Amino acid sequence: MALHYSISGRPPPLREFGALLNATLDVIRAQPATRFVLSETSPQHFATDDGGFPGAFTGSSCRPRASNWSRHFSNALARPPMRRAGVPILYTERAAISRWDAHVVHTFRRDYYGAQNEIVDCTHWCSPGVPDVWALQLANMLLHLHRGASDPTDGVSGPAVREEESKYKAAA
Hints:
Blueprint (H helix, E strand, L loop, with lengths): L13 H17 L7 E2 L33 H12 L4 E2 L2 H4 L6 E8 L5 E10 L4 H17 L12 H13 L1
Parallel strand pairs: 1-2
Antiparallel strand pairs: 3-4
Helix pairs in contact: 1-2
């Protein structure tokens, strides 16, 4: 499960995102026998200050972010209540924030009239690459959960992710 939500590439009003988050938590509470995992929203690398989608495909390439410490609003808002609900979190954002060079970049999409247009895609990822790292993280997390680990991130990720996890545990 990932809470990836935007309106024309910009964050939605907080009220709308809060309603989506609450509805998701209601689904989780209604299905106690089902295991949910929250996957963070991955970073984008468009030629904007925060790397976010500018509302139109512009520019000629993806670029590094001004800071490797930039949080997507949905990750920052979703982590605390999901943590309190006991939902394990697959930390994907930090592992990918410096990988501006691993996006699809130039691709073709059909417009409304059916014409093919070349666009710059700094949202989706080439494979093999970043998505394969996330798949390994998820596989390790599920293995730890299956073995009954109280914290499925213990021993699963590198030091940077364990550091992230400790920050959010302390804040919860």
